[in-house]
Write a structure and sequence with these properties.
The protein has about 100 residues and is of the alpha/beta class. It is about 25% helix and about 20% strand. Strands 1-2-3-4 form a 4-stranded mixed β-sheet. It starts with 14 loop residues before the first helix and ends in a 6-residue tail after the last strand.
């Protein structure tokens, strides 16, 4: 949410399963999907960027660095992609204007 509170958290041993669970989970009706972010503590893959775009996530954040193809996919989807996110430091790989 814009005020920084967590609204929905999904955890799973497999990153694809956790990403798949997110769009099916109940969420407050007043919260638009594109105001949220998909945050991963695992490797970024092109498939996960595609899943994030498919559910309408407004931002994708990961602790790992994305591949060049993953960055191209995020650019094509119009999705801000943040990687190497550790503490207060991170790198913006696509659509920096979507991050405030």
């Amino acid at each position: 949410m814009p005020d920084g509170r967590l609204i929905l958290v999904r955890e799973d041993m497999g990153r694809h399963n956790a990403a798949r669970q997110s769009p099916q989970a109940p969420r407050p009706t007043r919260l638009p999907v594109d105001s949220g972010a998909l945050v991963l503590t695992s490797r970024v893959s092109i498939e996960l960027v595609q899943k994030a775009a498919a559910i309408g996530a407004g931002l994708f954040i990961a602790v790992s660095a994305p591949t060049a193809l993953t960055v191209c996919t995020a650019n094509a989807c119009g999705m801000p992609l943040v990687g190497v996110a550790r503490g207060r430091e991170f790198e913006i790989f696509s659509h920096p204007g979507g991050i405030s």
